[in-house]
Amino acid sequence: MFLGLSIQAWITIVVLIGLVIANALTKIPAEFLSMCALAILITGGAIGEHAALSGFASEGVVVTGVGDIIVMALLQSGFIIWIVKNLMGRPGRYLQALVRIMFPVAVTSALVDDLSTTSVFTNIVRIWSKKIKVAPSKLLIPVAYVSLMGGSLTIIGTTPNIIISSLYAEQTGEHMGFFQVTIPALFCLVVGCIAIVLMRNILPERKSADTSFKNTSNYTVELLVPTENPAVGCSVDEAGLWKVPGGTLIEIVRFDGEIISPVTADEFILGGDRLIYSGEVDEILDLRSSKGLVNADHHVYSIDEIDKGRRMRTATVKYGSSLVGRTISETDFEQRSGMTLVAVSRKGETISKSPREIEIFPGDALLLECPPKKPNTETYSKDISFFDSMSTIQPGPKTWIAVGTILAMVVLITSRALTLLQGTLLAAMFLLSTKCVTAKQARKGIGWELLILIACAIAFGKAIQQTGISAAIADGVTAISGGSAYMTLFLVCLCTMLVTAFFSNTVSAAVFFPISYQCAIASGCSPLPFAIATMLAVNASYVTPYCSPVNTAVYGPGGYEFKDFLKIGIPLSLIELAAIMTIVPLIYPLKG
């Protein structure tokens, strides 16, 4: 024992701190790091094998996975287009746009997971910002924050809500109602929206990620191969024209108009070929003298001049993409998608380097040369999202089948006729049977990486509880609060918000629920208000771009800097903390 804690408790503390540091300083996927941390906890005896693996079969994991199928059904049924057409309207100026977008985002995120909601409305913001001549950065942070607030309205709106409600049921034997958190969350939503409107002037005006792609001649070069050039008849690799200093050969345009893209190393060179390079222009132009090439008659690529043989499209790299932490040359992305990377932009500035050798970060904007026919979404949907990819699925009979199914699910869960798990499973089965979503779409829609992260997070929570950490923290918090139930709740919410700024909100939910529960018991309070308050505190993930996938999703498209989230996130978090402390004890008495 050291400072009242066992060696297993200290192993748990060290492992969790190490997990935070590794997530912050490395590009290793969070789910892989979490699996490694779990393996260390099992080996160190901090948690038994059965308890560690039970997270993978927990209600929270299953409900989240099944919920992804329900979300996919809503997306595929045209529900989003109906929301846009009927609730959005046409903005006239910035303030009007800011106010009008809040209600649809909140409503959508209460039914559709907050990350999907944010992704959809990011494209709407890009369209609106052009109409009202405002930088997308003035609207995207509000979209992310309101999406988190709106997701708090129901116990399935965000992953933290699902996790905490399932852990609460496991600990107390009582299931939360579908709208158990709605009234406190609605109060926090209204307060948060008013705060965002009042703080709109401190929202940054940044250059959006795709604005640097207006004129591609700044970073692509076209060179012509003379008929008598020695390279004719050789492969591009043999001729030293494939990977060149400062650039990459992204396309060959034959003299007869044939377009070859992507270009492989064994592609042969013919006289009259036009070679399209991307990268550092000055270095690429040295090829004219060193390889006997000449300037082409005009530049092929221009955003405003795209011929029938190609399409230039801009996409953003998704949070959790398999491209993150790697260069395009290290992946098979171009081969399986048929698209070619032309340039990479980060925070609104094009990176002056060979694009295929740039390490990819979440939120990076990619300029891609695409074939005339749209690539199959299955080849890229997990990795990137096109800026122009607004859904074209129009509302129809399936829209109302999907919405009716979800409303029936809500009624049955709220009336306690079905548990959350039973309700979501039956809803997903009905949506599959009515073809509102296909089995293939359902499989693609499930976020397997997130499910692994949730399962590991639940195991971390159990380790904290079983090693006595949660009880020790509860005793300390109770002592500091002087036995005051209100002060105990305040300290729990404050600590939850502080830790969520460094952890993901998914992990924080699983880690802090046992602490919150023990604090309630230690202070002689009902655990329900503590669970509700923890839900709201975890979802108030505003301080950094990495404490929630939602924030990360707008980080790149908005061209934000890290300090932008601090500037508005810190005051908004304090306002939301005050709102939580006002409404939760009022609706759910602490000494119930």
Topology:
Elements: H1 7-25, H2 30-43, H3 49-54, H4 59-76, H5 79-88, H6 94-111, H7 114-132, H8 137-151, H9 159-172, H10 182-198, E1 220-224, E2 243-244, E3 247-253, E4 259-260, E5 274-279, H11 281-285, H12 287-290, E6 294-295, E7 311-317, H13 333-337, E8 340-346, E9 349-350, E10 365-370, E11 384-386, H14 397-414, H15 420-433, H16 439-445, H17 448-466, H18 469-481, H19 485-500, H20 505-522, H21 527-539, H22 549-555, H23 562-587
Antiparallel strand pairs: 1-5, 1-6, 2-3, 3-4, 3-5, 7-10, 7-11, 8-9, 8-10
Helix pairs in contact: 1-2, 2-17, 4-9, 4-14, 4-15, 4-16, 4-17, 5-6, 6-7, 6-8, 7-8, 7-22, 8-10, 8-22, 9-20, 9-21, 10-23, 14-15, 17-20, 18-19, 18-20, 19-20, 19-21, 19-23, 20-21, 21-23
Q: Would you give an account of this structure?
A:
It is globular, with a radius of gyration of 26 Å. 51% of the residues are buried. 53% of the residues lie in helices and 8% in strands. Among the domains are: 63-208 and 396-448, no CATH class; 211-386, Regulator of K+ conductance, C-terminal domain (Alpha-Beta Plaits, 2-Layer Sandwich). Strands 1, 2, 3, 4, 5 and 6 form a six-stranded antiparallel beta sheet that branches. The protein is built from 23 helices and eleven strands. By secondary structure, the chain is α+β, with helices and mostly antiparallel strands.
The number of helical runs is 23
Helix and strand content put the structural class at alpha+beta
Number of strands: 11
What is the mean pLDDT? 81
Give the C-alpha Rg.
26 Å
Shape: globular
Q: Report the end-to-end length measured between terminal Cα atoms.
A: 36 Å
Q: Sheet bearing the most strands, described? A: 6 strands, antiparallel
Instruction: Estimate percent helicity.
Output: 40-55%
Q: What proportion of the residues form beta strands (DSSP E)?
A: 5-15%
Oligomer: single chain
Q: Which spans have pLDDT < 50 for at least 5 consecutive residues?
A: 300-308
